[in-house]
């Protein structure tokens, strides 16, 4: 049987606190921040399908954070899966970030910190799955948190259909039918996540290849003082935005990687005695100004290029 909770019969000044406690009771402890001027509309319909918890949520814009303090004070091992029906959200976990639009499915882990920010009023269906139940079917699930799955994809569409159907039926929570429905949903979800992982592995290989090609092009053209993001992107046949994302995956913007490579090559040339003049090194590595090269070199390595040359001459 379903349980319905809403804020309509709660005093307006107490509604947000009441909602915060519902989220803790049925999902996990989080720190939350109201993003709308007034907290007027919020409701939760909860159903238990065997080991699986299923809820339908309508709520104002809000930000949830599972902080280190919340992890320590209220440990939780469940996985959560959110299907967005209306609204938009940003999810961050384990160094990954995704934007969730209507129709997108996002998977996240209550055993680790996360930030889930709903930027406008939203309507969503959320599954709560015991950790062991999912990992016994798909051990790699932990690597797919904060990755959006589109319900337009075949497996995503199947997960979406099952979640919508399960939310629309009222099955006695202690019945064998409820347990079978819950187990079936976890089976389909684990298959969808496994398919998603396979697709990401292929994409990772392609991204790694593109990134290496871009780095090779930069090294081959490092003497060009006008080398920029657009030129490198054109050389490897991707957009500048895609190129920036590729380098961002390693934590270094394109141009910063370029300047770092120039400096590292210049230090190697000077240290190995392959040049006798600082000007020669600077110009051959794409620096337009020798004085700028010298200042940047000293800021990075603590010594000037001339100091390295003099040290080798003695």
Automatic annotation (TrEMBL):
Alphabetical list of InterPro entries matching this protein: AraC-bd_2, AraC_XylS_family_regulators, Homeodomain-like_sf, HTH_AraC, HTH_AraC-typ_CS, Tscrpt_reg_AraC-type_HTH
Domain HTH araC/xylS-type: 212-311
Entry keyword Repeat: no
Entry GO MF terms: DNA-binding transcription factor activity; sequence-specific DNA binding
Keywords assigned by UniProt, alphabetized: DNA-binding, Transcription, Transcription regulation
Family matches, as PROSITE patterns: HTH_ARAC_FAMILY_1, HTH_ARAC_FAMILY_2
Superkingdom to which the source organism belongs: Bacteria
Protein name stated in the entry: AraC-type DNA-binding protein
Organism field: Marinobacterium lutimaris
Taxonomic placement: Bacteria, Pseudomonadati, Pseudomonadota, Gammaproteobacteria, Oceanospirillales
């Amino acid at each position: 049987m379903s349980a319905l909770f809403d804020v309509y019969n709660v005093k307006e000044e107490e509604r947000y606190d009441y909602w915060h406690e519902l989220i803790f009771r049925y999902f996990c402890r989080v720190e939350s921040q109201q993003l709308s001027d007034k907290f007027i509309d919020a409701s939760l319909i909860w159903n238990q399908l065997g080991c699986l918890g299923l809820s339908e949520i309508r709520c104002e814009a809000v930000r949830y954070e599972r902080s280190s303090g919340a992890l320590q004070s209220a440990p939780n091992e469940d996985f959560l899966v959110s299907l967005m029906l209306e609204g938009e959200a940003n999810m961050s976990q384990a160094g990954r970030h995704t934007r969730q639009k209507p129709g997108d499915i996002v998977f996240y882990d209550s055993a680790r910190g996360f930030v889930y920010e709903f930027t406008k009023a939203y309507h969503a269906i959320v599954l709560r799955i015991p950790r062991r139940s999912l990992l016994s079917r798909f051990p790699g699930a932990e690597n797919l948190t904060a990755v959006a799955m589109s319900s337009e994809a075949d497996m995503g569409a199947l997960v979406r259909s099952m979640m919508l159907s399960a939310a629309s039926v009222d099955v006695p929570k202690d019945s064998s039918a409820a347990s079978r429905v819950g187990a079936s949903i976890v089976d389909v979800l684990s298959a969808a996540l496994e398919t998603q992982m396979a697709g990401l592995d292929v994409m990772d290989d392609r991204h790694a290849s593109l990134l290496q090609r871009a780095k090779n092009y930069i090294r081959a053209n490092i003497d060009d003082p006008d080398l920029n993001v657009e030129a490198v992107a054109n050389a490897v046949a991707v957009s500048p935005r895609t190129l920036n994302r590729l380098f961002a995956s390693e934590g270094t913007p394109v141009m910063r990687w370029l300047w770092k490579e120039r400096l590292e090559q210049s230090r190697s040339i000077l240290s190995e005695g392959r040049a006798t003049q600082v000007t020669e090194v600077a110009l051959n590595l794409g620096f337009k100004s020798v004085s700028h090269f010298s200042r940047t070199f000293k800021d990075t390595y603590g010594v000037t290029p001339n100091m390295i040359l003099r040290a080798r001459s003695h």
